[in-house]
Write a structure and sequence with these properties.
The structure holds 2 protein chains of 2 kinds. Helix content of chain A is 31%, strand content 21%. Chain A is α/β, with parallel strands linked by helices. Chain A has a 7-stranded mixed sheet, covered by helices on one side. Chain A is globular, with a radius of gyration of 15 Å. Chain A has one domain: Aconitase, domain 4 (Alpha-Beta Barrel). In chain A, helix 4 links the parallel strand 2 and strand 3. By secondary structure, chain B is an alpha/beta fold. Chain B has 2 domains: 259 residues, 2-Layer Sandwich (Aconitase, domain 3); 148 residues, Aconitase, domain 3, CATH 3.30.499.10. In chain B, 30% of the residues lie in helices and 18% in strands. In chain B, strand 8, helix 6 and strand 9 form a beta-alpha-beta unit. The N and C termini of chain B lie far apart (52 Å). Classes of the chains: A alpha/beta, B alpha/beta. At the A-B interface, helix 5 and helix 7 of A face helix 2, helix 3 and helix 5 of B. The complex binds iron/sulfur cluster. The site of iron/sulfur cluster has 13 residues of chain B, from helix 4 and helix 10.
């Protein structure tokens, strides 16, 4: 899968209380969740982000709670991919289970907010102008999950068998 | 090469003799858990896959603890959905109303987790149950749906990291001070994806309540699980609660560890994590004079009997400072009752504290104790992220019960010896 998008930069340890504050957790409608995405540190993010944009972050992105509302809120804005130096593990599972792609690569200091990058998710290749960076490969099982269309479709298939 | 306790539990639950860190396995689960915030998403997915039943009606638990007693119409609606689902599918462990407590205090108390279990919960602090020598880890709602339907879950076997504690604990120091010390030392991603194993003579000296506190915050160092050896204290704790057989696993002496830390317990004092990361740890003495508006003693980290006992010892005959709200939240109905019969409520009420029903409440800025712009709280909870307890410009300091109680009396962050 190839993606091209505008960059939004967020730093280290972006926790799930930033991605979607707890007071909105009664909401289950993705669109409503998206309207509060990153609210504590970037109140206008939900208005300024455009479908296809890409988040680039530092280490430990998604740390904190297990709320699946976090990848749902990001996806609701049409953001298909987050690239970070590292991800917190529950967020990592949730994102793949929900169909939000994640790549682990340390490109934070090499990119500017607003510039465009090209990414090939399957091979993990990230093009920054003339430079090419290789992200850590996605484990084969996660690829299987993405191919199945997320964990729920994977389970559906299993139940039908 | 030997195996660690975490590896042994995962091998047993995937019918294998050996598992290696990094491998992806499918493990049988003994319990799948969700709460009033995470269960609604699980149930939506459950309907989507067209499942007809849960894998075992005894091995699914729903605890309505976060936004309850319902804070608004939406949260009431979500609870209603879970209630109806539980009835329809015959879920045995559905907790609400007067039977409900904060899930990670309630589930062990009810004997629903036993040594050697594999437990998954749609809540990051599910790792708390590692205190009982079980493998327990937090996941998202979709994973829980998968577990509820199949009785299994995919897992990557984590690398283990060992924390060996020796020496004697100082007065007032509890599990909270140890885990804050560790998070301060290794950082909020210091144990990323890893199994944090706690061992050593000083760990044996910790009470069960303190062990739950330590395991609870493994996630705050990025850990997948925290785990303790099963000893007499563990067996004593589960006596009278366990209703099914269980297995005790133990790490081999030649088990492999990614890292091993030695910690001198006698060097650990009372710790406080400053805004806005749990790793921003300072000794309480360094925060003298920091004014607070609210003190919270509760949560799945420190809302147990040990914590209330400490709070009562400090608050006895004292008054909460003018302008400070001190909210005390016994974590479960049993703890609530015991605190009441032991006379703690009178002490707390005389001091001017607010006693809340068992709920997560202010811990996640949900309701009952939300902070205004610019306010500061000291809390025995586990997260002090930006806006965690209310307005993005409010601040949370994390500590054990003794510092929170002493600070409530002084109105500034204080060591218990300053008020006694
Ligand atoms: S008390 Fe706080 S940390 Fe614990 S389960 Fe409730 S909201 Fe989560």
């Amino acid at each position: 899968m190839e993606l091209k998008g505008r960059i939004w930069k967020f730093g280290d340890n972006i926790d799930t209380d930033i991605i979607i504050p707890a007071r909105y957790l009664s909401l289950t409608d993705p669109k409503a969740l998206g309207e509060h995405c990153m609210e504590p540190i970037a109140p206008n993010f939900h208005k300024d982000a455009k479908p296809g944009d890409i988040i680039v972050a530092g280490s430990n992105f998604g740390c904190g709670s297990s709320r699946e509302h976090a990848p749902i809120a990001i996806l609701a804005l049409g953001i298909p991919l987050v690239i970070a130096k590292s991800f917190a593990r529950i967020f990592y599972r949730n994102a793949f289970n929900k169909g939000l792609a994640l790549l682990e690569a340390d490109i934070f200091d090499d990119v500017k907010e607003g510039e465009t990058i090209e990414v090939d998710i399957s091979s993990g290749t990230i093009k920054l102008g003339t430079k090419v960076v290789k992200a850590k490969p996605i484990p084969p099982f996660m690829e299987e999950l993405i191919e199945a269309g997320g964990l729920i479709n994977y389970l559906k298939k299993k139940l039908e068998e | 090469m030997g195996m660690t306790i975490t590896e042994k539990i995962l091998a047993y639950h995937s019918d294998r003799d050996v598992v290696e860190p990094g491998e992806i396995i499918e493990a049988r689960i003994d319990l799948a858990l969700a709460n009033d915030i995470t269960a609604p998403l699980s149930l939506e997915e459950f309907e989507k896959v067209g499942a007809k039943k849960v894998f075992d009606t005894e091995k699914v638990a729903f605890v309505l603890d976060h936004f309850t007693p319902n804070k608004d119409i939406l949260s009431a609606h979500n609870c209603k959905k879970i209630r109806e689902f539980s009835k329809k599918y015959g879920i045995k462990n559905f907790f609400e109303g007067g039977r409900c407590g904060i899930e990670h205090a309630l589930i062990p108390e009810e004997g629903l987790v036993l040594p050697g279990d594999v437990v998954i919960g749609a809540d990051s602090h599910t790792c708390t149950y590692g205190a009982l020598g079980a493998f327990a880890t937090g996941m998202g709602s979709t994973d829980i749906t998968y577990g509820m339907v199949t009785g299994k879950i995919w897992l990557k076997v984590p690398e283990s990291i060992k924390f060996v504690c020796y020496g004697k604990w100082q007065r007032w120091v509890t599990g909270k001070d140890l885990i804050l010390h560790i998070i301060g030392m290794i950082g909020v991603d210091g144990a990323l994806y890893g199994a944090m194993e706690f061992d050593g003579e000083a760990i044996s000296d910790l009470s069960m309540d303190s062990r739950f506190t330590v395991a609870n915050m493994a996630i705050e160092a990025g850990g997948k699980n925290g785990i303790f050896k099963v000893d007499e204290k563990t067996l004593e704790y589960i006596k009278g609660r366990s209703k099914r057989p269980y297995r005790v696993f133990e790490s081999d002496p030649d088990g492999r560890y990614k890292e091993a830390y030695e910690i001198d317990a006698s060097k650990i004092g009372l710790n406080v994590a400053c805004p806005s990361l749990p790793s921003n740890v300072k000794p309480v003495e360094a925060l003298k004079g920091v004014e607070i508006d609210q003190a919270v003693i509760g949560s799945c980290t420190n809302g147990r009997m040990e914590d209330l006992e400490i709070a009562a010892r400090i608050l006895k005959g004292k008054k909460v400072a003018d302008g400070v709200r001190c909210i005390i939240i016994p974590a479960t109905p049993k703890i609530y009752r015991e605190a009441l019969t032991r006379g703690f409520f009178e002490i707390f009420l005389d001091a001017g504290c607010i006693i809340s029903p068992p709920t997560c409440g202010p811990c996640l800025g949900g309701h009952m104790g939300v902070l205004a712009k610019g306010e500061k709280a000291i809390a025995t909870t586990n997260r002090n992220f930006i806006g965690r307890m209310g307005h993005p410009e409010s601040e949370v300091y994390l500590s054990g019960a003794s510092v929170a109680a002493a600070s409530a009396i002084k109105g500034t962050i204080s060591h218990p010896e300053e008020v006694l």
